[in-house]
Amino acid sequence: MQSILSATHLTKSFSTPEGRPFTVLDDIDLELKEGEIVALLGRSGSGKSTLLRCLSGLVRPSWGEVRYRGQRVKGPMPGMAMVFQNFALFPWLTVQQNVELGLEAMGVPAPQRRRRALEVIDLIGLDGFEKAFPKELSGGMRQRVGFARALVTNPDILFMDEPFSALDVLTAESLRDELLELWSERRIPTRSILLVTHNIEEAVLLADRILVLSANPGRLMAEVTVPLPYPRKREHPVFVERVEQVYRILTTRPGLEQPPAEAIGIGHRLPRAPIGALEGLLERVAEGPGFGREDLSKLAGEMQLEVDELFPLLDAAELLGLAVVQEGDIRLSPLGQRFAAASSNTRKKIFAERMLLSVPLVGHIHRVLQTRPNGRAPEERFVRELEDYMPTEEALAVLAIAIDWGRYAELFEYDYNAGVLYGEGAPSPGT
Amino acid sequence: MRRLFPSPDSLRPRAPFSRWDLVVIPGILVLLSLLTVALEGATQPFGPRSPDLTVSLEPVYLPYYSLRSLLRMLLAILLSLSFTFVYGSIAAKVPRSERVLIALLDFLQSLPILGFLTASTAIFVGLFRGSLFGLEAASIFAIFTSQVWNMTFSFYSALKTVPKELVEAAAMLRLSPWQRLWKLEVPYAMPGLVWNAMMSVSGGWFFVVASEVISVAGREREQYLPGVGSYIALAIQQADVRAMIWAGISLFLLVLLYDQLFFRPVVAWAEKFRLEQSGAANTARSWVLTLLQRARLTQRIARLPAALWEWLWLCSARFSRVGSALEGRLTRRRRERLADLGFNLGLAVASLSLLGVLLSYLFGPGLGFQGGRMLQPNPNLNRNFSPELARRFASLGIAPGADRTVWLSQLCAASQGGQVVREEMRTLLHEPEVGAPANLVEACSRPLAPTGKVAWPEVWEVLKYGLCTMLRVSAMVLLAACLWTPIGVYVGLRPTVAQWAQPLAQFGAAFPANLLFPLFVVALANLRLNPEFWLSPLMVLGTQWYLLFNVVAAAMTLPNDLKEAARMHGLSGWAWWRRLVLPATFPALVTGGITAAGGSWNASIVAERVSWGSTTLVATGLGAYIAHWSTGAFNPHVGLGMLVMGLLVLAYNRLLWQPLYRLAEERYRLD
Ligand SMILES: Nc1ncnc2c1ncn2[C@@H]1O[C@H](COP(=O)(O)OP(=O)(O)OP(=O)(O)O)[C@@H](O)[C@H]1O
Ligand SMILES: [Mg+2]
């Protein structure tokens, strides 16, 4: 089959505030062929959105190249269109004006513009809402406008960045079905779709191929093909098997047998795991039918967790030595078992011990605060240290996690107004 | 709301006019003819031989004067908008320009506005030689400088904060820069821009009144441009109470008209650009907008440029060209650094040389200041005379200075106080380039001291003045805050009261407070009160309203659940204030305080030196200092005063208001 879009040796790095490059995508080769839907899966922060933006020409890669039908991509090409997670509609334009926008850029004169826009509005099921403003519409209807705006230019290739994740489950389902209908009945001229998602089931429902991205730096880790005709049934054995397979891939670390307890430094990106959710997960696994062992796809379905919510929890549990994740299963360690059964105070103690041992950043903060005579340090100090390894936003996020965990474990306190960390027992600067 | 059936209206055959047009068509015609009249008046010839401009205190002329003032206002706001678009776009889009342009903007907006009047008059008079429009332009420019900075800031920061997803959508749709500007950037900036323009216009009325009386180099008398401001100035000079009342009435009507006919409609229209994805609760309404939207003629007129627009639109379209990426390749760091270094070096050299020029302009043998006392300024006849004229002056025994400047004092000396004017001298004085006072004897009878340059001791003196003014501004803003917060909260918590109090406060902010200054003068003079102290309230007279209406707005939007929670916990009295009301209104108080303080600094030039008839009261301060030297041409003293005030305001904002603002943003925001 003919290739529409191809990337070779695609690498993208940003630079930290210190000027050090930090690689998000590393040497990616991929190809989009005529007539296929490809899904990009990966953990949060693995660079899925960045990859999508590199392929669509919104962002120029640092190295390597992207070709669209043989032409080198240096910016968004005619024939490309994108659907956004939060719709990206222009709130001051009516539905029709929003839809016409893509045609205006192509220099289509007004009468044709209007005719074509109305056609697509009709196709997408928006008729009657032409004169409405986006703020009058529900989320599902807004994303319909997003689709109409993308499809009005008859795009050859359609990029979608988590198009259904801002919608509720039912709306997402129906919109997905409609898209598949248009696609499989060939009512839209689009020849290829690239979709970023957090939802493994969604990927298996829609895609012919699923590309799994590893994190830090993002590399293509695996490819899963789904040879099922549309519409796909969730109960189909192949479907179930593919979902399992994706979980297995996402939980297998290539080349690392040991959890990297020693290898990480203070620049390790701590997983964004809220304490409450982590406790909930461990309790559920400990008390579940598997007695401390659980299948991840089942767990995710039951707790309604998507990849970006589930995996940070798993990472945190592993990092702290509370559980081991392997082959699509989670297994509590003896410590994890003890943690799940313990009272709140004991939990905090276990947490504190484990963190000082295996989370270098928390240990570092703790040490600094102890060596200071007044037991206090401004947060900027740590942000600056983290900025050696990552961009500012990321550094702030990582520090926020460390603070959240440290507070829970009662290792240190944090004064939000003053932006100061202080050791347990040191006088609060705010009072 | 969706209609299931077409409304009967739409089935009726459409006449080209509706009954709304009965109002709109005559309205438009009247507006057009008024505009013509005003423009005609503003572009009359005005040369060196033209008689001095003056106004009449007859109230019948007031409508015409109002019209002229209104025209100045209109031109100033148009100019501000154009400047905003250009400057804001460049600062936001051209890499590296931001660093210079934004710092410059920050400094310019701290400069005292009325100081610009002296600086710009000569330029504009030279630019529009022979036309009255030179003076008009100077006045308009002063109003412009009072309006433009906050609008530009608002536009710039909107450009910098356009949501990333919308930017990406625009890039993906391959909108051309022109299309992106009008479909994305300007609409996004619109609510902030309209709000700021409204603030600006409110402040602008104050400066219309203060900037219509202009001193022109070489003319002995001040020029009174036809306008309400000149009318008021003359009334003050002649201590004419009746005229002051008439001026008050016409200003009242003027502000009201401007608000109803111009700003209400614009604000109501700008509602649709709000980004919130939900229906807003209290949308602004305007009867004029409704009228315009219902009248068919205006709809037709509005559609006339559509063809041109469409043409421009399609010209800029990309057709099948490739769009532009949002972010280029990671440029090679070495080259980037080098370019950066070069840019910074260039910047440093440029600012150093600018500083050098400025210092050498300002400092030198100080003649305007002697023994701790300031002398009367000595105007020059003109600077930079042609060699031919300079030679003729020299032949009369008046040696022009190094920059070929001739001072009035020299002329007085050569003509023995204006008593002996020989024939050659008379012809020379009537040359168009030479601005000699009409009554030389009278001009020479006043004690004159050449302005000269600034001596170092004067700088310390000026700094001291600056601190006096700073003290006044701070004390008065604090006082106003203490006064208006309880009132504002009281009003804001009662929706029915707030409904009429809010527009009233906005009106108060727009109504030029300088009209009320003479009242103070009379009162202070009669009661023999100390002007050093009692002139201070004048500075916040016009700007205190910003505090009031910000607090009212904050109290109005105090969430109900917070109020209920406070009641449940039995908060009352001081605890209620401390725990609920003060934190909730703090951001509004800071925003209002920033505006009020900025306005007060500017007002100090007219508020520290006020007069009524022959009584003039002066309070020691930087404003009074600038006012003192603002007679005639721009001189190093005015320059020094402006510079010091600019730096002080900058420091004041950085050290006081910015931390407060950050605190308010981080801690007390309610969303
Ligand atoms: N413009 C940028 N400058 C600096 N770093 C960036 C930029 N854009 C993305 N990153 C970084 O690149 C990494 C990948 O981001 P990206 O948004 O592509 O991940 P993602 O897989 O889409 O994550 P998510 O699932 O949360 O959407 C993150 O660490 C992010 O901080
Ligand atoms: Mg993403």
From TrEMBL, chain A:
SUPFAM superfamilies: P-loop containing nucleoside triphosphate hydrolases. Keywords: ATP-binding, Hydrolase, Nucleotide-binding, Transport. It is an enzyme of class 3 (hydrolase). Residues 5-240 form the ABC transporter domain. One of its GO terms (molecular function) is ATP hydrolysis activity. Pfam families: AAA_assoc_C, ABC_tran. PROSITE patterns: ABC_TRANSPORTER_1 (PS00211), ABC_TRANSPORTER_2 (PS50893). InterPro entries: AAA+_ATPase (IPR003593), AAA-associated_dom_C (IPR018632), ABC_transporter-like_ATP-bd (IPR003439), ABC_transporter-like_CS (IPR017871), ABC_transporter_ATP-bind (IPR050166), P-loop_NTPase (IPR027417). Its EC number is 3.6.3.-. PANTHER family: ALIPHATIC SULFONATES IMPORT ATP-BINDING PROTEIN SSUB (PTHR42788:SF13), TAURINE IMPORT ATP-BINDING PROTEIN-RELATED (PTHR42788). This is Bicarbonate transport ATP-binding protein CmpD. The gene is cmpD_1.
TrEMBL record, chain B:
It comes from the Bacteria. The keyword Transmembrane helix applies. The keyword Transport applies. It is a multi-pass membrane protein. Keywords: Membrane, Transmembrane, Transmembrane helix, Transport. It is found in: Cell membrane; Membrane. Its main location: membrane. Residues 66-262, 470-656 form the ABC transmembrane type-1 domain. One of its GO terms (cellular component) is plasma membrane. The chain crosses the membrane at residues 20-39, 70-88, 100-128, 239-258, 341-364, 473-493, 505-527, 534-556, 576-598, 610-628, 634-652. SUPFAM superfamilies: MetI-like. GO terms for biological process: transmembrane transport. Belongs to the binding-protein-dependent transport system permease family. This is Bicarbonate transport system permease protein CmpB. It comes from Calidithermus roseus. The gene is cmpB_1.
